[in-house]
Amino acid sequence: MSGASLDPRLLRKAPPRPLRFSWSDERFRNIVYQVLVVAAVLSVFGWLWSNTRYNLEVRRIATGWGFLSREAGLPIGEHLIDYDPSMTYFRALLVGVLNTLKVAIIGIVLATILGTLLGIARLSKNWMLARFAGAYVEIVRDLPLLLQLLFWYSLLQGLPGPRQAFNPVTGVFLSNRGLKLPYIQWESAHSWTLLAVVVGAVLTWFYRRTVRAKQMQDGQIRSIWPAALLLMVGLPLLVWAALGAPFTIDVPELRGFNFRGGLDVSPEFFALLLGLTLYTAGFIAEIVRAGILAVSQGQWEAAEALGLSRRRVMNLIVLPQAMRVIIPPMTSQFLNITKNSSLAVAIGYQDIVSIANTTLNQTGQAIEGIAIIMLVYLTISLSISLFMNWYNKRIALVER
């Protein structure tokens, strides 16, 4: 049969059969079923919409988005943008969105760092370190997040007052009023310096790609760190110095019964961030541990045979391969941090859920308020998923 050749007529694609309007035609039946399903779904949504409108009219409940332009009269303790109660509900809801993003972004960064360290620690040859990391993961993951948030908030509320505040480092105070930190007074020169850092990072990325392309062509290894140091450190320092080099540190000081100056971290935000970070880090630790164990032991043995230390083997060989296993489940944990931040209402932190609930209680716009909450979390979740999927494709193996 090896010398035989197939008839070219057998390789031709069969001509498509015409659609017959008969129940015996499978394609016709599939089209009918799909039309019926779509019609049923539209009918259910239409019935729900008409029923909702009827009930709202009977109860004389106003609908619409006009309330967003009305004065809120809602006090908000923490806000990243200017706000006072005389502003509109739209401004208040925007403050809530920014508060949610603040705790979600900082929580994602801190939980990723802590979870990665714990995951590596669980694989350590140090018996005590491995057992401590294992006990942390098991205990934290088995306790409900809400219980942990209430625990940390109660613990912070039980701290001494400002006059007896803990002062572990100069300028840092921890009391029942929250955490007080020194910070640099922000000026326009600092904004331009930050922009220079971003530009330097982008230029460093392009330079790295160019150097890697040349290395693939001639095999010669070139150092990237001198250019990276010049672009990401030298350029911002040059911009900062050219604009007058402002550098004024605002250190908190005890005046009367409270602190003045410095950066104020409220007990509500501190407890929420602490609870989200510690809780999610336990799950991220197991994801990192599983990703590292997915790399074959032969990779370790081959690298150690070349004389590489375990730290360099982990950084250069194991973790880059483990990331392909870590990224997909890590995305779910990032989404969980964002959605779990809605528990902030239990400890008094004013995020989008808290402010939207107050808004709908004051205005009676329940449907619009719930729709805003759903839209905010849907947008944030889809943004995180799109970014993580893009990054996952970037690090995926490309088959040749």
TrEMBL record:
Keywords: Amino-acid transport, Cell membrane, Membrane, Transmembrane, Transmembrane helix, Transport
InterPro entries assigned: AA_ABC_transptr_permease_3TM, ArtM/GltK/GlnP/TcyL/YhdX-like, MetI-like, MetI-like_sf
Superkingdom per UniProt: Bacteria
Pfam families to which the protein is assigned, alphabetical: BPD_transp_1
NCBIfam families for this protein: HEQRo_perm_3TM (TIGR01726)
Topology in membrane: Multi-pass membrane protein
Protein name (record): Amino acid ABC transporter permease
Location in or out of the cell: Cell inner membrane; Cell membrane
Predominant location category: membrane
Organism encoding this protein: Roseococcus pinisoli
Coiled-coil ranges per UniProt: none
